[in-house]
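Hi R.,

Here's the chain you asked about this morning:
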Amino acid sequence: MSPAARGWLRALGLGFAVVVVDQVSKVIAAAALGPGERVDLVLGFELVDVRNTGIAFGLLADGQILVLAVTAVALVLILGYFALHPSQPGLWIGVGLLVGGAVGNLIDRVRLNEVVDFIDPPAWPAFNVADVAIVVGIVAIVLVHRPHPSPGDE
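And here is the predicted structure, written out as tokens:
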């Protein structure tokens, strides 16, 4: 198998795994909680059933079509970029996480017209597994592209 094909297979496999874990965790959280119910976890974290019609921090809450369009464009751009560099070491991790997270939240938007968030930390808005995957995926992509010092550089 070529390095490019291996990169695609890994990214798609990771993305699929993220979607499955995200969707299953949302179903379990929603089934375990009644409306407005909160369950204390650890370190001030709570399990909640929060619905978000916007993007991060509830921005664009009334712009469902815009949110869907921006998400679709972002997915096309990241997949287009990955298509040019599928064998770049480690890039598949960031792309798989980012695409899996975006698709997980996109499924909610299409199916429910909102995103299910259920992890509520202190002093921060509630989030879900897809949100974590998106953030970690972005960080991974940035780290893959950071400058690497040459041997002998100090």
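One quick note: The CA atoms of residues 107 and 119 lie 18 Å apart.

Cheers,
M.
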